[in-house]
Amino acid sequence: MSDSPAPTKNASGAHRTGGPHWRARVRRLIGHPWIFQIVIIAALVAVAAYEIDLQALANAFKDARYEFLVAILAVTVVARVLHAIEWQVELTKVGKAPLFGLMGVLMIGTLVNMVVPASAGDVAKVQIAANRYDLPRAGLIGTRGAEAVINALIMVGFIALAFALPGGAFGSKELLWTVLAASIVLFIGAFVASRTLPEHLPDWGMLRRVPFGLGAQLRFHWPRLYAGFESVRRPGLLGLLVVMNIIGWGFDVLIVWLYGRAFHLSVPFDAYISVTVAIAIVTVFPITFGNIGTYELLVTSVLRLYGANATDALAFAIATHLFSTAYNIALGLIAVWAMRLRPADVFRLAGGPERGHPRERLADLS
Q1: 235-262 and 67-90 helices cross at what angle (nearest 10)?
Q2: If 306 and its partner were Cys, which of 164, 271, 319, 352 is the partner (CB 3.0–4.6 Å)?
Q3: Over the stretch 150-199, which tens digit does the pLDDT of each residue have?
Q4: DSSP run (H or E) holding 281
Q5: How far is CA 176 from the centre of its chain?
């Protein structure tokens, strides 16, 4: 006998299934992450439409000095070159790849992040570099981890600087302290681990008891992952990357300042440093897809602390988000064309030095 409730009739005589199934479907629909993000974006847009003079907002775009956008694009490209040089340094013990090839990989990864959620661009960077330049994936993952550690270290300094500026009270102090503490813990933990962990994983008995051969996999890939963190272990490389990372932050501040010039913002230079830190934070902790809405809210709030007009601040926030996204997509598409990239170059798992491992001989999807 079935335990499901018997069908009942409504007022019109039609049968309907009893039970709370429709309520569960509604709860699943409301709890769906995409629905949640759409609701947040719609609410933020509604607030902006209610509080902002939309005609004045349109005029801000009409009166913008678009010649600055050319300079912004040029600085963006230079910043990408610097980022590629950083990655080459991080690959010191992993392998070699051409500078402009890595630059293209970075641009394509950023493009993927623009159109696909969940940081899929970082996966694409590893996949493309491994397939195109015969580099071990474990080593590439290590270099991305080393970069994250160094970025966290520099973010600590810029958050501290933001605290010292007049507009340092933007957002939540608790959030800023949390980011600061997490960044310090991440850097110290990674530095200590990279200096103390062995280059070759010992043949511990417990690893042999791990199912599906995962212990053997870990022992095989460990030296490559270890090599990816070489830049954190060597003081000379670490110092060089710290300097380049600071210069990269300088490029970010310069880009934000150029946007301010383009949209006639009358705020002190300190404001652009605080805005750059705010953008970094909203990028680390995304709430909506593409940070739509949350980006504009935070950037506008920071600029308001420095005396910017609400309409001008929102125009600046929308413009920086819109043009930055457009530039990243355009540069990514150019890189796809220049590298003659195919979908198989992203999804193919075979290839690279790991191919010699018996468990790495996976089907080539190309």
Answers
A1: 170
A2: 271
A3: 887 787 778 777 766 665 555 556 666 776 777 778 778 777 777 777 77
A4: helix 269-284
A5: 18
